[in-house]
Amino acid sequence: xxxxxxxLNKNCxxxxxxxTAFHVPGNTNCLADMLSRADKLSEIIPMxxxxxxxxxENWTGKAMPSFNAKDLYGxxxxxxxxxxxxxxxxxxLTVGIPSFPADPxxxxxxxxxxxxxxxxxxxxxxxxxxxxxxxxxxxxxxxTPLQKxxxxxxxxxxxxxxxxxxxxxxxxxxKAQVELVSRSVPPSxxxxxxxxxxxxxxxxxxxxxxxxxxxxxxxxxAGQAGxxxxxxNVRQSKTDQSASGQYVIVGCRQKEGFHCGDPACAMHxxxxxxxxxxxxxxxxxxxxxxxxxxxxxxxxxEIALSDQTEAVIGHSFGINRxxxxxxxxxxxxxxxxxxxxxxxxxxxGVQERGFGQRNGSN
Length: 362
Known about the structure:
By secondary structure, this protein is mostly helical. It is built from 17 helices and 5 strands. Helix 7 (about 105-115) runs antiparallel to helix 8, helix 7 packs parallel to helix 9 (about 145-165) and helix 11 packs antiparallel against helix 13 (about 265-275).
């Protein structure tokens, strides 16, 4: 038995335990306490090998009561195997078992580490309270008022730092900001992302709907001076559970019969994109992934909102009447949206042409 205690004293201090004796339960029964932490030891030692004492069932979370010769024999075998494992696997010592009690300096360092990770303050407080409760089980002594004040100040500092961060939000850009984005290129140099953004804004598409578009889903309707509006077949949509396809009409920003050179015109940007990158009808329209387009759109929106302090996580392709009612190429009012932006109707050629003419007259 002395050899077991000496071996544990020699190999276990780095894991946070020093064995002083092996005896019937008492206040200083460190070996019993360590071996009773089977939930932690199971991460280091495979407790289910044949011939092992089932510590995970008998000693988990329990102080050691009086035990018989069979229990003592099982603990001896476990202690020997523990020593052999630590000798053969020095790497296991670095894994360690949490050492309690934790001093006030360690608790303050724990708060600082969680704050540096950028977690929410509520999460930091929850983790700290958990450690604090478990620490009371091992440390019957109370902290001094100075130590309590130090911990309180650390929590207060963490609260101020984490709650004063810039809030991330989703935004809808104004007309001037959309025009600024139309002349910008994301840091990835993918110009097609700007075109995809403009199409999403003018056609009111979701990000996944843009990714799912194919070259054959775009149809240009001719006017007096070339194409004046286009029809987009939305293949995949959250509101189209049958996947039958829905049509969206996008008009030109110029009047019919006039040449359009506006970089913010989604229809002509898509037309130029298809002319520069021809391909089969089943090929992807923009050939970008969801994550790539999401990253590029976030970068473009940040360019447009460079004068604001709040961070953004993306762009909301939503309807905002006050912002969009004066934007040519889109809708004039909510009634126009209700009458002409009705997905799933494929037999409305007259309405499509009238929609394009109304947008051209704005």
